[in-house]
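Structure in, sequence out. Go:
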């Protein structure tokens, strides 16, 4: 089977700083790095490295040739990445000495994905495939609706959190992935906690505390693997990509979650985003 990812693609510029700057504060960076990123691209790379066949649906500006080449090298099908007049999306990321980050996004071409590209891509999908999207592009709801009508399972990562977008997506989603902050934001916006949502499976990631798998009234907790983080950027995307990759290969949910936790734990010990997402062999051999 295949995983169809309607997702963002960014150029990431990462600055290492002693601490995350506060309002009005000017802070000199100690290091500057440049990576391929974006929640969608990160998930596609994690999916590919977990062994899944992933088709990325997205958009870049005219400056995106290097990104298409890089994604192709990483095993991602890039045939459905459009070119638009908008420039390629980018993110400015500051990472402090504890590995925590703050991110400023400019969406650029990510909000200009043509409907024709989405339709062309999903015309090749087959019943039993999986569709995933996040909140950094346009047409999430349209994509989910088309996917459901074609018999695909729909996964949705509600990040960056947007109350209106999340409300619109909930009726279409079979699997919802969000972190603890996003879960609280969703509760404030809808009055519903993870157990109350009209979604079959909800995964709430809890950072260093692991994650919860919520299915109706039942909640199963999974502990994180203790590591010393150097950069948490992309850890959630790596978790989601490996989770979906495991499910696509037929793993039961607990096994897929365990694999995703290992991948995310290994990811936070590395500096970078899509370029440093571990492959399946590294995850299986990881001994913290």
């Amino acid at each position: 089977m295949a995983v169809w990812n309607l997702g963002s693609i960014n150029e990431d510029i990462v600055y290492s700083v002693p601490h995350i700057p506060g309002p009005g504060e000017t802070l000199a960076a100690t290091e500057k790095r440049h990576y391929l990123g974006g929640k969608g691209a990160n998930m596609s790379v994690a999916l590919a490295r977990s062994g899944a066949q992933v088709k990325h649906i997205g958009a870049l500006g005219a400056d995106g040739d290097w990104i298409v080449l890089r994604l192709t090298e990483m095993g991602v099908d890039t045939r459905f990445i459009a070119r638009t007049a908008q420039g390629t999306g980018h993110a400015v990321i500051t990472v402090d000495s504890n590995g925590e980050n703050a991110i400023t996004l400019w969406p650029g071409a990510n909000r200009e994905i043509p409907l024709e590209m989405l339709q062309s891509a999903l015309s090749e999908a087959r019943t039993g495939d999986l569709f995933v999207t996040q909140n950094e592009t346009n047409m999430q709801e349209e994509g989910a609706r088309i996917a459901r009508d074609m018999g695909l399972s729909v996964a949705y990562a509600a990040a960056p959190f947007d109350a209106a977008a999340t409300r619109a997506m909930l009726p279409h989603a079979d699997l919802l992935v969000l972190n603890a902050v996003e879960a609280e934001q969703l509760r404030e916006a809808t009055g519903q906690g993870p157990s109350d949502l009209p979604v079959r499976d909800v995964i709430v990631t809890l950072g260093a505390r692991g994650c919860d798998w919520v299915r109706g009234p039942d909640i199963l907790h999974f502990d994180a693997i203790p590591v010393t983080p150097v950069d948490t950027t992309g850890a959630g995307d790596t978790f989601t990509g490996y989770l979906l990759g495991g499910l696509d290969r037929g793993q039961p949910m607990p096994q897929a979650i365990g694999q995703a936790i290992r991948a995310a734990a290994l990811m936070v010990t590395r500096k970078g985003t899509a370029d440093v997402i571990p492959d399946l062999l590294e995850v299986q051999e990881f001994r913290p």
